[in-house]
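Anyone able to model this chain together with adenosine monophosphate?
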Amino acid sequence: MAWKTLDDMDLNGKRVLVRVDINVPVENGRVTDATRIARIVPTVNDILAKGGHPMLIAHFGRPKGKVVLDMTLRVCVPVLEEKLGRKVRFVETLDAAENLTEEARSADVLLLENIRFHPGEEANDPEFAARLAALGDVYCNDAFSASHRAHASTEGLARLLPSCAGRLMQAELEALEAALGRPARPVMAVVGGAKVSTKLELLGNLVEKVDSLVIGGGMANTFLAAQGIDVGKSLCEHEMADTAREIIAKAQATGCEIILPTDVVIAREFKEGADNETVPATECPEDAMILDAGPQSVARIVTALETAKTLIWNGPLGAFEIAPFDTATNAAASRAAELSAEGTLVSVAGGGDTVAALNKAGAADRFTYISTAGGAFLEWMEGKLLPGVAALDMAA
Ligand code: AMP
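re: yes, here you go
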């Protein structure tokens, strides 16, 4: 980890370009979930405390290089002002940003309009990056969740200015490093969710790095089927059978223990409260589908958790949105949360539905770190070096 943090930078009197991710959900012109905005506050405050003048750069939606009026970042200004407890000046165009007076530049926190209105952003056009770079003296990337994209504001700028990670980026990278970079062993991974096909590279990387790998959710069905087990009407990618067998073989070669369900909860309808029963994983009836792992499987996962020192989790163990098929996810997540709170387990979780599943289980707040980064988190779990992070390393 070569990248610098805000602690390494002299920011006094400096114009700091801060790449943030405030791509928040908006309904009828109002921000409905301000989590992402709240999370950038420590970075902005630290820059201010060090005498720097932050200009926030962010994207909103996918305007694809054109000005799209209903994708304006102006909608974030009131919430940003409330969370920061200070005035935020919205800067509509790059021309306006270039023509700000010295006084205006240093009076308030600045927020630049949706950077994706410019085609040069996603193209990582060097001329566009240079134009942006001229607006600042220092670059701070606090948008881990956008750092799997090599765009001008996530990658190009780090080549042009003294650069560092913001507090959120720093916390995210430190947590990820603790979980997969140089983790305390044994390391256990839980990978669930719908499909093997979307998580192939992730599974391939994990079997090389972790000591045990729990496979749950719809994905487990594909692994069961690949071993000749009939999974009835379960969600299953039969065409991925060879791939599943390759992953099992790779795990055997690397000494990674794969933990698949040995008992399963089946139902005949995919709906909340559907009639269900628990059967051995080898005995799913032809007309039924597997919707959750059974108690014996959960007990095995919990036993593995008790001895693990590090846990990395992506994806639910069952159809967690519809009770009671959230039982295995809830039970395993609760135990992981307890062990984390007791300090015996370092637990890192992330990726789309995972955060929702762990929140629903009431476990999220006791995990060591929850990443809200979605795609970037998954790419990191796949063992990829994220361009935005690599650029910070190069700049250091
Ligand atoms: P993912 O986005 O890949 O993490 O997948 C999450 C989705 O997988 C959730 O919507 C779950 O309901 C679904 N899921 C998990 N287990 C099963 C299962 N056994 N059968 C059908 N869907 C499942």
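The two ends are 10 Å apart (CA to CA).
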